[in-house]
Amino acid sequence: MGKKEDILALCIEDIRSGRSSLAECLERYPSMRQHLEPLLRIALSIQEPPDIKPSNAFRVRARVHLVEQIHATRNVKQTWYPGWLKIAALVVAIVLAASALGTGTAYAAQDSLPGDTLYHVKLGVEQVRRVLNTGDTARVKLELAFAGVRLEEMEALANEAPDRIGTVTSRYERNIAMAIERTEYVGNGGASASVSEEAALTMSRHLCVLDGIEDNVPETAREAIRHAKEIAIGGQIEALRILTRENPLRAAEINLDTLQNRLYRAKVNAERNEAAEVEIALRQFEELRRFGEEISQTAKGLGYNTAAVDELNAHATSAQLEVLGDIYGKVSEETKGAVEKALEVSVEGHGQAVEGLRERGALGDIPEEPALPEEVPEKVKERILKPEPKGSGPGRH
Amino acid sequence: MREERNTGAAANIALLIKRAVEGDADSFGRLYDMHVDRVYRHVYYRVGNVPDAEDLTQQVFLKAWQAMDKYKKTSSPFLAWLMRIGHNLVIDFYRSKKDKAYLDYEVAAPDLDSSPERVAEAKLDQQQLRRAILQLHGDQQQVILMRFIEDFSYTEIASSLGKSEGTIRVILHRALAKLRHIMEEETT
User: Fold this and answer.
1) Nearest CA in chain B to A57
2) A208: number of CA atoms within 13 Å, CB side?
3) So where are chain A's domains?
């Protein structure tokens, strides 16, 4: 190897893989040292930025949008298919379903898990049920029910085969995405509100179930369960976005219940000295609290009187701060920063709610500045209540 | 490329791609699930803010779906193909931007390898480095990002960009020399 480009590439690979150090590489090519060293230093300095991930709400929203676009193109492409072909497909599906259900196989497959011989039958029966349930509302309910089945599978696999939970989580994500997609199709009005509310409440329940599963799985399976929780939260946010168009107050109520639940989760984990879990639950709280502000803004944009939503958000602050104070008193110094951030988000949300109420002259007895818990030191309180003006950073991650 | 080096995963991806090329939306949805995080990170690194990164990531997958029948004719890994679509979209995005504010967005600091030698070796300012990388043009920027940020092999980069591995090494060399030049100019 003689060309300088090849030598540079070889040195980069050797150093990155740990086969050589920078010094060893330079010693191998003394005549090129001056040329190689600065370039290698730059190459080795380029590190992939960690923890940059899209939010789960975005993941679900983008997937739903993608599927919608695909269906839109497909509808155009398939308009020439004769009606009899669709009817024939339906008849075949019905015959398949009837024969599958008629034998004991489908029944026996109900309790099967990924890796079992009958699991494909179980998924096949689900697919047939999808074909038979063409209405949007029915499909939402069906996908939510299938998502519930995925949770049962996760629970069953937790101790038997935790390495298989990841595949179930992916299916759970698809069930949730399909439920949201169909919720979008339900349209406007009472039906949409009722379906999106049911979807949001179901995902809130899923979150509680997943907390329980997380507590009982071995460490190796925890990551997959955490991912499933993020999906449930992302799905709930999307369902609440739809509900906000029809009933923002109800959307705000459900969101507040879930974020309060995240705080209790953080508190339980603080009592168990599980710092990483505390931080995860607090991040989820922050995401939902910020989403509460989005509900208020969306409702305002749609012309709703948002006083009730803002009042709800403002009243919720004291309960949030109280729990955050408890958590603050229980966690180590390293984790206190995460609690302070959650306090900031709660106070910020309070400020926005107060602003909305003040504009309408509906502030009533709600304090403009919330009382921070006594566990928090004075200088931290001061910083939280009078934050530095924000720059144009990249946003949350 | 870490993900597709796993033979089982690669076979699974190949099957999903085959179905997606045939028009199976569910398979494409699963490809989306598998790749959205990587595509987002790639785009985010280049645009530096969440709303634009989300918007462009969404567009990458829509374009990919619309062009799935073209993918089967290429030999590059699926993720590399998505990155290429992302690269073109980001270029269009830059063209539509009059200011260069995206250069100054802060991207999370790197979590350096704990080896003291590696830390000492890789101590350049990441923000300065990112700004310099974003000033590289065309293939130079793409090769740097694909090799160092996305961890593609030279073979994968070569097939993705339709060039030989030797040419990729030449581009890499020129890109690093250019980065050195940009960074020296910035400090003086």
Assistant:
1) B54
2) 11
3) 4-45, 285-397
Provide the pLDDT confidence category of residue B118 given band limits of 50, 70 and 90. Answer: very low
Query: For residue range A332-353, what is the model confidence (pLDDT) as tens digits?
Result: 999 999 999 999 999 998 988 8
User: What per-residue confidence (pLDDT) applies to A98?
Assistant: 54
Count CB atoms within 10 A of the CB of residue B94: 13
Which member of B33, B40, B166 has the closest CB to residue A53?
A: B40
pLDDT at A154 exceeding the cut of 90: yes
**pLDDT of B3 over the 50 cut:** no
Contact A52 B51 (CB under 8 A): no
- Interface size A-B, in CB pairs within 8 Å, comes to 150
pLDDT at A106: 64
What does the H/E/C string look like for A346-397? HHHHHHHHHHHHHHCCCCCCCCCCCCCCCCCCHHHHHHHHCCCCCCCCCCCC
Tell me which of A288 and A55 has the higher pLDDT. A288
Query: Residue B71 belongs to a domain with what CATH number?
Result: 1.10.10.10
Q: Is the ipTM of this complex over 0.90?
A: no
- Residue B117's domain comprises 2-187
Name the residue type at position B3: E
Three-state secondary structure call for residue A12 = helix
- CB contacts of A396 in chain B (<8 Å) are 50
Q: What residues 97-126 of chain B have any CB closer than 8 A to a CB of chain A? A: 101, 105-112, 117-118, 121-124, 126
Are residues A73 and B66, on separate chains, in Cβ contact within 8 Å? Answer: yes
Q: How far is B50 from chain A, CA to nearest CA, in Å?
A: 6
